[in-house]
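Backbone geometry:

***
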Amino acid sequence: MKRVTRFLASLVAAILLLAGSALGKTLVSNPSESDDKTLSPYFFVKSDDPDVDQIPLKSTSARVNIAGVIADVQVTQVYKNEGKKPLEAIYVFPASTRAAVYGMKMTIGQRTIQAKIDRREDARKAYEQARNQGKSASLLEQQRPNVFQMSVANILPEDVITVELKYTELLGPTDRIYEFVYPTVVGPRYTNQHADTAPASERWVQNPYLRQQEVPGYAFDISVSLSAGLPIRDLSCTSHKVNVSYDNPAMASVALDASEKHGGNRDYVLRYRLDGDRVQSGLLLYQGERENFFLLMMQPPKRVKSAHIPGREYIFIVDVSGSMHGFPLEISKKLLKNLIGNLRSTDLFNVLLFSGGSSVMAEESLPATAENINRAVQLIGRQQGGGGTELLPALRRALSLKQLENYSRTVVIATDGFVTVEEEVFDLIRTNLGRANMFPFGIGTSVNRHIIEGMAHVGMGEPFVITSPEQAASKAERFRAMIESPVLTQVNVKFRDFVTYDVEPLTIPDVLAERPVVLFGKWRGKPQGRITLSGIAGEGAYTQTLEVGQARPQKKNSALQYLWARHRITLLSDYNKLRSNDARIKEITDLGLTYNLLTAYTSFVAIDSEVRNRDGNGVTVKQPLPLPQGVSDLAVGGAAQQAFAPRLAAKMAPSGQHASQQDSIAPREQKGIETEEKVARTVKDVTVSRGLTRETILAAAEGYAPEIKKCCAAAGLSGRLVIKITVNPDGTVKVIDILEGASKNHKAKQCITNQVMKWRLPAPRDGREATATISFAV
């Protein structure tokens, strides 16, 4: 069976490669039977079973109410079973990294069931028990701070089940511009974890994806009601076509245009300024039954440019992996050309490219001369995108580069963040805070904002997200302005006659952009006294005082309790990622249970009391996700090998096998492709060195075989051809030697060399060069 599986995996890889693809981010064999399988996303293709509705999510919508600086969001997911078998639907979707999810309910016909918050393992146990008993149930789990998973059990034929969840988040302006972001789709995550040993919390990565440019299989809608408190100006949606209407100068309604029905393949981004470039600052108070909460926002001074800038060194880390192919990589090139091209002559810089492996322009940073800048721009410009996304080794390598004294090092990271090693990356950055400032640039229409914002958070830097080529220049300019002259340093906040406790954050880093200093906390007694913000600005000492008595506690500020708890949970989680601690886990769990919040250790579960599926039989389907707009099939790449062999194996499976093992895995028909037998005979033998696997190189070589055969046919050669190649750490070919068959035929040798040097192969696992010897029958 293993031999058959290997053959099938090889065949599918050949089909993909013949179609002009390349092995991309996830290079794995089929998930059901392999000696070396890893977790991985895969391409969705509908199965032949007409009784199973494999796309049960029919619509997802959001209703957003923004009052001042607080956004309250209600997300509605509608599931309908249009097949003939009961379903369990699993849907992976994103959320804001700042979202405090505080409520969920499930509606079946006329019955509405309010979800309860419970410990994660208890919630899942209750859900699975209800599912097995034939009860309809829904379970909301947090897989990452910005990745959730909804499971809905026992959706009967013709059922319509609606699940609503609510969250709130704080909006803080940057350089006086407010931004509300609603993420719509989770991009395919690269991981090298083995499926057999991966914990259950990581299995959400194994999710089906539609092909690039395929529209989502569900309708998408979002509407925003904005009550800013001050006159609004410059309101725009940079991601979707919208219609805006104003009730008065301070209130606006934003509706999605009808043409955007399938706009759920990119983040929804709404930006606005307030009249006179003012920002919402001041004190919000909430008085609860047991606890009182406050939110302080104090405006820092305006930026003052400094004429005396110390020596600076810049390390530019650029993701050139499979998911960056095309649109994201082109944005990166534009961004890096702008950043590097505007360095001062006194600056030093270096460029590190990474995918499955990494390479640097120089072993130590170079002066920003015209010659070196041109060399760097050309190096980045030649990149096409391919291979895995080994971000962690790339960061380690960048931090280990030789550093000169009296130079301030800044690390700029350009990536889509489609990885699953967030915790390890945060750990690495936190333990190296004294060595470099971190400024991550998220590139693409649906980046992994958790890792982009998290890297900036733990690295005391600022996150940047670029969703279109037009933004590259403006974001580069803002980055330069930010690092040249901080707005406020040595920041300190003092409370006088206002009794506060549990204040977050405990210390305030340098303020690098013109946005408010934000503090959360609790208070006792009467709302009175003063709060003073002080620090050093560009023109010297700076002080600002606020009178507490001018603010009144209001019930409409009840979201402050969720925002405070979410901030506290984020802080504890960051520390727990560095060193896991049972006491911190308990505190996070208790916070989730006390404040009714979704966390890594608490989940929402809703269970209907009625037994609806009495025989207990059902089919589990994973809702296929669209690839984020601008992301190519290379983001899934070799994972498509999974599609073929399981499908054929499923046909041979005993009747009654659970359909979750069979759905979404049939391959697309490919036109103009050689038959299985002909493709299988092309490559006769493959030997590889350490770091490569025979099966993946065999599959890749068979995919490229037609071009090799054309070279030989044009030169009149037939028989046996043997080549030896050296593979770079990123999967490109460094050297080719023709050992047999065409070594004396100049025409064939040149043609074969040209073709092989274009190959994109699986990146060596150890990040080093590797070799492969391949024998063809031509």
